[in-house]
Design a protein that fits this description.
- The complex is a heterodimer.
- By secondary structure, chain A is mostly helical.
- Chain A has 2 domains: about 1-35; about 45-130 and about 190-305, MetI-like (MetI-like fold).
- Chain A is built from 16 helices and 2 strands.
- Chain A has helices spanning about 1-45, 65-70, 80-110, 120-125, 130, 135-140, 150, 160-170, 175-185, 185-190, 195-205, 210-220, 225-235, 235-250, 255-265, 270-304; strands spanning about 45-50, 55-60.
- Chain A has a two-stranded antiparallel ribbon.
- In chain A, strand 1 (about 45-50) and strand 2 form a beta hairpin.
- In chain A, helix 3 (about 80-110) runs parallel beside helix 11 and helix 8 packs antiparallel against helix 9.
- The two termini of chain B are about 50 Å apart.
- In chain B, helix 4 packs across helix 9 (about 185-195).
- Chain B folds into 2 domains: about 1-40; about 80-325, MetI-like (MetI-like fold, Orthogonal Bundle).
- Helices cover about 70% and strands about 0% of the residues of chain B.
- The radius of gyration of chain B is 27 Å and the shape is flat.
- Chain B has 16 helices and no strands.
- The chains are: A mainly alpha, B mainly alpha.
- At the A-B interface, helix 1, helix 4, helix 5, helix 6 and helix 7 of A face helix 1, helix 2, helix 4, helix 5 and helix 6 of B.
């Protein structure tokens, strides 16, 4: 008995040893490519970085000067103040994220229904995974000579006509109409960023037990009720994940990297570039934290 | 049977049929509209790309070009493929290899985090999430400097007298992939962890009773059973590495990756250079901004071909195994 116990213990230790061994690459990577750069960035951001005679770097502590310069004297590549760049970034991300999330849920709900040609439709619905790549979007949508089809083919797809029709036949105020139509105008861009989210939602929808829907049907629930009482609570967790993924993905696409690179290697102000990095990182983490707290509450409510 | 139906029932049935018909039409319109919204940016490229380069400013043309030509494709090919077919082959090979590395490493890490209890495993999982949340741009600068003067605990300095300069060497990208810091790799680790968490414990116990050690259990039992997660991660990994301009652009700009070549050749700052090349190569004195766009869009269509092929081959695994791919918690 004692021998068996000893063997079991040996097995346990061997197991956790192997576990650590398997995780080791990540730990090394975390130290080399995350922890050390993070600490270095913070150090650089508080000091004046110069080049020494031997070719190495010299650091002299300057306190918050880099941060103060960043927000007072420095400008971005497009000659806007940094504060403005950051607020613009945040506001576009905050308005786009909910639309992307709702869109991807909608696409997933459509793709989850049974109909002829579903396979083909799914192929198209996940296409944004490929078409939404940053480089592809950049090259497809940015036009130096102007958008030939959109300017000349204007008519059914143009924002102007939609605005006109809505103003003529509804009582909505101009500002409301304008925001709505500009969202619709942006739809191609927004939908192109919903590929992975649609995939996640569809996976979530398929993992809901069919018996729940059967019960709802027997109880006589309408499609609308079924959605809010069965589908929605079941995917609350997934919405949480999708929301975080969307925010992270949108922040990843931001142009801050270019600004940092520009500060550090073109204007050779490594300190200011590091300060911008730190500010940006705090910005992202705070946004995510707020989202986390808000959604936690929502998910808990749905679970109880 | 039919004769027995009363009038009311018939009316009810007819109404039901009509209702279903209207619903179907509505549903079909929605699906068609969504598909259109996704495909429109691509459809929009064709009239420009297939048009004669000098006829692009023609105001009579919207959808169907009058003078058709595939010259924009030829020009795009010549501009983007510095080494002919090899450029594309190299990029595909690079993406495939680094994708395999990422799958292998992430699966191991995910497995250990999901199935092995050791001190600090939860902390490590938290670190994975943290890495996912912190945008890599914020660390770009000091990572760059780190790679410029690369050293592990002063070992290289001791032997060679100098630190290693790893910037603009492909090794850097593999180093990142090998340690779980490739493009979105923390997401892959997360997916694998969720997947392995849901595999029944009995499977592992059975393997243990049959005398499999830890490694054998993992490579012979767990990994072959992880096909759904592997296919999801493999598709995402290939697509994202092929389309990556961030890591390739900052850490290995001279590496000849197609995505980065496209970004630099068709950057608006290089417009004049590209247009002059067109003028000289194809004797087209009248090329303008529109032609630049046309060539740019032709090149993106060429660029998309391998991606779309991989996507079409892989998508049925992606969709079939979706619910147990570990992508949902």
């Amino acid at each position: 008995m004692a021998r068996l116990k000893k063997r079991k213990l040996k097995y346990r230790t061997a197991r956790s040893l192997f576990g650590v061994l398997y995780v080791l690459p990540f730990l090394i990577g975390f130290l080399m490519f995350f922890a050390v750069p993070l600490v270095n960035t913070i150090i650089y951001s508080f000091s004046n970085v110069g080049v020494s005679d031997q070719g190495g770097m010299t650091l002299s502590f300057t306190g918050f000067t880099n941060y103060i310069n960043l927000f007072t004297t420095e400008v971005s590549t497009t000659s806007a103040t940094i504060a403005r760049v950051l607020t613009e970034e945040n506001s576009t991300i905050l308005t786009n994220a909910p639309i992307i999330i709702v869109f991807s849920l909608f696409l997933a709900l459509l793709a989850n229904r049974k109909f002829k040609g579903r396979a083909a439709v799914r192929v198209i619905f996940f296409l944004p995974i490929v078409l939404g790549l940053e480089i592809v979007m950049q090259m497809m949508t940015e036009n130096t000579g102007g958008d030939l089809v959109a300017t000349r083919g204007n008519g059914i797809f143009s924002q102007g006509i939609a605005n006109y029709l809505l103003m003529r036949y509804t009582d909505l105020s101009v500002s409301v109409i304008d925001t709505v139509t500009s969202f619709v105008d942006n739809i191609f861009e927004l939908i192109s960023q919903a590929g992975v989210q649609t995939l996640i939602y569809l996976a979530g929808l398929q993992s809901i037990s069919p018996s729940l829907y059967e019960v709802a049907k027997i109880e006589g629930a309408t499609g609308y009720e079924t959605f809010w009482k069965v589908t929605f609570p079941s995917i609350a967790n997934i919405t949480f994940f999708v929301a975080i993924y969307t925010l992270v993905d949108l922040f990843l696409r931001s142009s801050i990297a270019e600004e940092v690179y520009n500060f550090a290697f073109i204007k050779s102000k490594i300190g200011v570039g590091s300060a911008l990095s730190v500010v940006y990182m705090l910005n992202v983490l705070i946004m995510l934290l707020i989202l986390l707290l808000l959604l936690r509450r929502m998910v808990k409510k749905n679970e109880s | 049977m039919k004769a027995e139906l009363s009038k009311e029932v018939k009316i009810y049935l007819r109404h039901k049929k009509q209702k279903r018909f209207i619903e179907n039409v509505f549903f079909f319109c929605l699906i068609a509209g969504m598909c259109f919204a996704i495909l429109y940016p691509v459809i929009k490229l064709f009239p420009t790309v297939l048009c004669d380069l000098e006829d692009l400013g023609n105001p009579d043309v919207i959808w169907i070009p009058i003078k058709k030509s595939v010259l924009s494709f030829t020009a795009a090919w010549r501009l983007m493929m510095k080494n002919g077919w090899m450029t594309m082959g190299y990029t595909i090979g690079y993406s495939a290899i680094i994708m395999l590395v990422e799958v292998f490493i992430s699966a191991m890490i995910g497995f250990a985090l999901a199935r092995v209890k050791f001190k600090g495993s939860n902390v490590i999982f938290f670190l994975v999430i943290l890495v996912f949340l912190v945008p890599p741009q914020a660390l770009l600068l000091s990572q760059y400097i780190h790679f410029k003067n690369f050293d592990i605990l002063g070992i290289f300095q001791m032997f060679t007298g100098d630190t290693l300069d790893l910037i603009d060497k492909p090794v850097t990208l593999f180093l990142l992939g090998l340690t779980g810091f490739g493009v979105n790799q923390s997401l892959y680790i997360f997916i694998f962890r969720q997947f392995f968490k849901n595999i029944p414990k009995e499977l592992e116990e059975a393997a243990m009773i049959d005398g499999c050690g830890f490694n054998k259990t993992y490579f012979k039992i767990m990994l072959p059973n992880a096909k759904p997660a592997i296919s999801t991660v493999a598709v995402l990994g290939f697509v994202w590495n092929y389309g990556d301009t961030y890591y390739t652009g900052y850490f290995n700009p001279g590496g000849g990756y197609l995505s980065y070549i496209l970004q630099t050749v068709f950057d608006s700052a290089n417009k004049e250079y590209t247009l002059n090349a067109l003028k000289v190569w194809y004797k087209l004195p009248l090329v303008n901004d529109f032609s630049f766009d046309a060539v740019k869009q032709a090149s993106i269509l060429i660029y998309l071909i391998p991606l779309l092929i991989v996507y079409f081959i892989a998508q049925h695994w992606l969709v079939e195994n979706l619910e147990n791919s570990g992508i949902v918690g």
